[in-house]
Amino acid sequence: MWDTIVSSTPQIVQAGLEFTIPLSIISFALGFIISIFTAMIRISNPKGNIVFKLLWRFLKLIADFYVWLFRSTPELVQLFIVFFGLPNIGIQFPAFTAGIVVFSLNTGAYCSESIRSAIQSIPEGQWEAASSIGMKYWQVMSLIIFPQAIRVALPPLSNSFISLVKDTSLASSITITEMFMVSQQIAAKNYEPLLMYSIVAVYYAVICTLLTWLQHYLEKRTSRYLINRGA
Fold it and tell me: What share of residues in the chain are helix, strand, coil (percent, to 5)?
């Protein structure tokens, strides 16, 4: 058993460094950007002429449909549609790119809800106070509302990132040789699936535990002024 653990560790760790971790980080970064734009479109009601308002209403419908679509369909099905289905209509992505596309869009849909609810949790009085001193909408949002909203949204955003790390195991279904796929390949050779899947589960647990510690640290850092104010 120990020989198997020692011999398989370098291969699994290498797969984690080459695919699992980069896939998670890139997808979450892009998904976070998508989630901000999506949340802002869904909650904003900008002023303007009738054409602008109709255009914004159309963008809201698109954003609502996007969030509904990716929250209502399995991630594995989304991967299959993008990697195996889209080539039928002339759209083809490399496996790693297809993974990033699906994981980013999926993450963006879920994180947009976290950011939207966090922004709406900020008391209305702060908007009114900022407007009374002449601050414009985007100034209020970027300088006052959004920094507070990020603190509120940090726990669910962190949970989304941790879930994303685990969900990258689905990328093995579209031929990405991340940690789970490597463990499958080794298990097919040594005929010890229980051992190999247990080993890769431990590695996922280690990564997610480190991310949980990082989450707690960030929560303390972003909430330190509240503690100081309470003191």
Answer: 85, 0, 15
Rounded Cα distance, 46 and 56, in Å = 8
- Which two structure tokens, joined as six digits, stand for 110? 């879920």
What CA dihedral angle connects 220, 109, 96 and 11, to 10 degrees?
40
pLDDT digits 0-9 by tens, 80-93: 999 999 999 999 99
**Angstrom distance (rounded) from CA 75 to CA 62:** 20
Going from the N-terminus, what domains does the chain have, and what CATH number goes with each? 18-178 (1.10.3720.10)
Rounded Cα distance, 167 and 161, in Å: 10
Give residue-wise pLDDT tens across range 176-185. Answer: 999 999 999 9
Cα-to-chain-centroid distance, residue 171: 15
Whether the CB-CB separation of 183 and 8 falls below 8 Å is answered with yes
Q: What is the rounded (10 degree) CA torsion for 103, 28, 55, 145?
A: 150
pTM > 0.85: yes
CA 191 to chain centre: 35
> Minimal CA–CA distance to 219: which of 176, 163, 158?
158
Strands (E) across 125-212 are located at none
Cβ-count burial 39-51 (b if 16+ within 10 Å, e if not): bbbbbeeeeeeee
DSSP 160-173: HHHHHHHHGGGGGG
b/e code 14-24 from CB counts within 10 Å (16+ = b) = ebbebbbbebb
Q: Taking residues 17-38, report their average pLDDT.
A: 96
